[in-house]
Structures are given as structure tokens and as C-alpha cells.
Amino acid sequence: MGNTKSQSRTVFLTFIVVKLDVQSSGVDSIVHGAQPISPIVLSAFHAWTHGLDTRESMISIFSHIRDIPYSLDVPVTDPKTLQEQILMAGKGSCGAKHYLLAEMFRNLNLTVVYATFPFLWNDPGIHYPPQLRKLAATLPVSHHLACRVQIGCSWILVDATWDLPLLKAGFPVNGSWDGYSETKCAVKPLKSPVRTAFCRTVTNEPCCGKDEAALKAVDGEKNHWEEDERARYYTEKISLCSSHELECIQRFSREFSSWLETVRTSTI
């Protein structure tokens, strides 16, 4: 997704944008292309895409990253190497998943940007056990990082957050992706209170800037064109949390991740 606060367990979920077969103009010119890729990531990239065309490679990358078990209880040794860490640990959060997805998509010569959604962990659709539900209700607003991919004139959501076994606990798992259709978002995004109160137009659409309009961002969504921008945004949000809230976040991260392991092995 420093200081002590920014090293606390990540409660971000992640979101990316990729461009296919469009000219570099307007909003696209802001986004950087392929970046150097580490040997560890490159090895996985070759294993997941060998003999595949671009669309098939995108689907394969998405499926492999989705199937990495989601966990909030993974120590972050270096925020700049999250892509390598999730591959070595074999588990990770949405932030790590989508940093990895972005790097691999860029290696396919696709354009990637990040977008963030505010949300609450206390989602009634998730089948939390009673004690974890109470803990989730104490958490402040969190921020999900996921993916947007531009295909033609459309920016679509690509979200590889939840692994398949979590479907039985009510998580909005994306069982498959065809390489061009929009996936389900891993969270229920909160609307921006400012936009909702003051920025509605006569068409009842949220007020948004030129770049957001091009991306067709939902109300409350924050788009990040570069990793540094997204990292600063995350740090700013974490810095608003009280010490008590940070303690609740850390406790929830441990207990939530432990419960997910139980869900995966459950036959129900």
C-alpha cells in the first residue's frame, strides 16, 4: 500500500486499470507503460503466460492471483516489494494482489492505473461469526484497491481479491473472467458524502472531474495514476486513525485472517 502508522496491517483492498488497443491520448497519456520486473515476478509471469496470447495471458494472470489466499495478517517488510512478498508468502491482501497484477499486466505492454474505494468491513452480506462481526462494527472506513481495465472506450473493473473457497462465506468472489467484461467489486463502495450532498446534477449523476468522467468512476471512487500517488493517499488515510482504531484494525486483521483459514477448510 515509513512511519509507525503506515506499517500497521493493511486494510486496503486494491483496484487497477488497463488499456487495450486504444491510442495514447487524453487520460491515457498520464499513465506509464511497462516497468522493470523483478526476477521472482518474471518467473511467475512466464509460468502463467507461456504459449498464450495477450487476452489468454490476462485471464491466466487474473485467475492465478485470485487463487492466492487472501490474508491481512502478512508482515510487510518493504512496501516497494509487495509483488515479490506475496509470491514468496503464498498469501496476501488486495493491495499486494493488485500491485502484482499491475506489474504483470504492464509486462504485457498494457497500461495500468490504480483506483480506491472507501468501504466498511461490517458488510451484512458476509457470514461473520458473532464475535468477529462485533469487531468489524468497530472499524473505521477502510479503502479497497482493485483494478480497472480499459478495453476500447470502456474502463472495466478487474478485481482478483477473494479466492474461490471464500464464496461459501458470502464474499463476492469472481469465479471467472473472460478478459473483457467487468468483474464484481470485492467490497460495497461508500458514496462520497460531499458529492451526495452538494454535487448532484439534474441527471442525478455524481459530480466528477474530466479524468474521472473518462474512467466512469463510481461515486466515492478515487483514481490513482501512479503508485506514489496511491501510497500517499493511503498514508494520509491511515494517519487519520486514532491509536485505538489502529489497535482494532490489527486485532481484526489477525482474527479475520484466521477465520478465513477456517472457512477454506470448512465443508459447509
List the helices and strands and how they pair.
Blueprint: E1 12-20, H1 39-49, H2 54-66, H3 82-89, H4 94-107, E2 111-119, H5 130-136, E3 142-151, E4 154-158, H6 193-198, H7 210-215, E5 222-224, H8 227-239, H9 243-265
From the alpha-carbon coordinates, what is the Rg to the nearest angstrom?
18 Å
Strand content: 5-15%
Structure classification: alpha+beta
Mean pLDDT rating: 80
What would you call the shape?
globular
How would you characterize the largest beta sheet?
5 strands, mixed
Count of all domains: 1
Helix content: 25-40%
Q: What is the number of E strands?
A: 5
Question: What order do the helices and strands follow?
Answer: EHHHHEHEEHHEHH
- Number of helices, where a helix is a run of at least 4 consecutive DSSP H or I residues: 9
Terminal CA distance:
33 Å
Low-pLDDT residue intervals, each spanning 5 or more residues? 1-34, 194-209
Structural features, described:
It is a single chain. Helix content is 38%, strand content 13%. By secondary structure, it is an alpha+beta fold. It has one domain. Strands 1, 2, 3, 4 and 5 form a 5-stranded mixed sheet that branches. Strand 3 (142-151) and strand 4 (154-158) form a beta hairpin. Helix 2 (54-66) runs antiparallel to helix 4 (94-107) and helix 3 crosses helix 4. The two termini are 33 Å apart.
Spell out the key features of this protein.
268 residues, alpha+beta, 9 helices, 5 strands, 13% strand
What is the gist of this entry?
By secondary structure, the chain is α+β, with helices and mostly antiparallel strands.
